[in-house]
Write a structure and sequence with these properties.
Blueprint (H helix, E strand, L loop, with lengths): L1 E10 L3 H9 L10 E11 L5 E11 L4 H4 L7 E11 L4 E8 L7 E12 L6 E15 L4 H12 L9 H37 L1 H18 L1 H13 L14
Antiparallel strand pairs: 1-7, 2-3, 3-4, 4-5, 5-6, 6-7
Helix pairs in contact: 1-4, 4-5
Length: about 250
């Protein structure tokens, strides 16, 4: 079972500003669920001029009670974000996917950022950026959930008519609904960052980010997930990747 969602929207800002804001978008007033972000790798191809970045995000979230009874308790999730900025052709392609819950729900989001073109003369509108969003949501409930469904069915009641397929469909529908709600918050958050860049400038925006990251470290958020990631990948202190854009 797979669900797809596609959407088109624009920002009233030039492409260079939007691509910069993408990497500076956390934190913002609409992203309180994003607990931490870190740059894992960054590479600039000297031949093509393309900048490739991979980041790890830690987000807060939980499943609705309607399906949570069949699944493990979920409070946080890790998101892998990859992006490629093609400066020469003025195109940025991004992808985010969840690293947790994959046996429950998989959400893969792709975005393409390009300068907006006038429909009248096919010329670039330097003050706008178009975004094409594509989301793929699928659920693959495992054997543990199937056993719980069987137990619930044998006892009768509300869940007696539920099947694994029913749970999968419900999870996908709920995931799609939450994704649409999150899209609105995400766009508003980007606008806040873009307005901040325009009003305060890059240096002030970077200073605010630095202060926020220091506050997060004091609260222990950064050390919590970073130690988990490095332990899983076998990284040691000498292997720590530079975080130039996020420092």
């Amino acid at each position: 079972m797979v669900k797809f969602y596609e959407n088109y929207f624009s920002y009233d800002f030039a492409w260079p500003a939007v691509t910069l804001a993408y990497f500076l978008r956390y934190p913002n007033p609409y992203s309180s669920h994003v607990l931490a972000s870190d740059t894992l790798s960054r590479h600039l191809d000297p031949t093509t001029g393309k900048l490739t970045t991979v980041r790890l995000l830690l987000k807060r979230g939980k499943l609705p009670a309607a399906v949570a009874r069949f699944l493990p308790k979920i409070k946080e999730s890790y998101i892998l974000e990859s992006s490629e900025v093609d400066i020469r052709n003025q195109t940025m392609v991004t992808e985010t996917r969840n690293l947790d819950w994959e046996g429950v729900i998989s959400v893969v989001e792709n975005q393409v950022y390009t300068p907006s073109y006038s429909s009248h003369n096919n010329s670039s509108d330097g003050e706008k950026t178009d975004v094409k969003l594509t989301v793929k949501i699928s659920s693959r409930v495992g054997s543990n959930a199937r056993e719980k469904v069987a137990d619930a069915a044998s006892s009768g009641g509300l869940w007696a008519s539920w099947t694994t397929g029913s749970i999968q469909k419900s999870i996908e529908v709920i995931g799609m609904k939450r994704m649409r709600e999150g899209l609105g918050r995400s766009k508003e958050g980007m606008k806040v960052v873009l307005e901040g860049l325009r009003e305060k400038g890059l240096l002030a925006a970077m200073q605010e980010r630095r202060e926020r990251r220091l506050a997060d470290k004091e609260e222990g958020v950064q050390s919590k997930w970073s130690s988990i990631w490095r332990g899983a990948t076998g990284m040691n202190e000498g292997d720590k990747l530079r975080k130039d854009s996020d420092e």
